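Task 17 of the worksheet. Students: predict the tertiary structure of the chain below and write it out as structure tokens. Keep your answer in the requested format; marks are given for formatting as well as content.
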Amino acid sequence: MPDSVKYPPAYLSWIVWGLGAAFYLSGFYQRVAPAVMTDYLMADFHMGAAALGNLSAFYFYSYVSVQIPTGILVDYWGPKKLLTAGAFTAAAGAFLFAAAPNILLANVGRLLIGGSVGVAWVGLLMLSMHWFPPRRFAMTSGLGLLCGITGAVSAGVPLRILVDQFGWRPVMLSSAIVSLLIAVCLWIVVRDDPSQRGYAGYSPPSGTSTHSFSSMWAGLLKVFHYRNTWLLSLAPAGLAGPVLAFSGLWGVPFLTTHYGLSPSKSAALTSTLLVAWAVGGPVLGGLSDRIGWRKPIYVAGSFVGCAGWSIILFMPGLPIWMLTLLLLVTGFASGAMILGFAFVKESVPPSLAGTVSGVCNMGVMIGPMVLQPAIGYILDANWTGSLENGIRAYHLGAYQAAFTLMIGWSVISALLICFTKETRCRQMVLD
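Model answer:
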């Protein structure tokens, strides 16, 4: 076969993909970092649960708002430009957050971080489409989630140890420097398609000049003509939302208060949830690819996750070993949400893959965006005036009232998935 039609060597594909995954990893780290710094942040900025939930959710406000534009722009410009610009902006936001003298500027910093890393997942999916065979898409999507969770785990016990040792501001400043280095590497190494390095690509190159912005907006409207777009964009919020609300903010104070665990041990348990979620993604994605079905695995994962949360949150006083086991099972089952990206991509024309991925990812992040501040508001509404070390302490009933939102949303999501149309792991709609 002539060199011009050779596919890229595996090592090159993994390097390109790996840099996109590194940016996604750093974004996930920033997403859940406030969870192990709740006491420091509440003391430093003199705030309660509602304000803390809002601070964390500012990340999701901008993250969700950029998903549809990201899906459109990645089809128009390609992933390299978006990923690079996102990494540079993330570094700026992390610098601002680390140096913020008040809650207002801290919120702005979180807003910048969320909006900039919001391009990471869709950009990574597009790199997977162009640099790997289609049969690898669900697996590489799962591995992408695994990389993200690796970033989240690093924001658990390791981050808490560093924060205790050096303070949260210097540690956040260091993360800004890492984001800056990732941005430089993305610009130097990554290419949108193997054809830009003399190899054959696995998908038509994205971001060609033949597409206009008007056609991209028309494409956005077109993806909503398909039923699966709606269902698969709304459903994952009930799987990802509880995982990220618990591990990303409220799990550590809940476990510290009601199980008597130290912040480090509580962070270890929430990291266990994230690790199981990370493992569940590629395992269930690979299983789906192997058996040729999407819907049964997605449905099963959603109902198991819903049952797990019900036990964890509403059966107090569980033995630690049982609590850990439940978190493992619930996290693993919730990893089924990764199937939604392959599922929805197969449900629309291939040229709209980036657009529909952005729409779907917006749905994923609506869950934590709503749940994190909403839980905080309910906690404050049920606060009895108790303080521990000058920080508000909330009784078990307050947490259970707040966590009811997580259970309700997970039930709705499980039901929505039941109404999706199976694709049998094949592209059901052509251009």
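Marker's comment: Residues 3-192+215-417 form a domain with the Growth Hormone; Chain: A; fold (CATH 1.20.1250.20). The beta strands are 387-388, 391-392.
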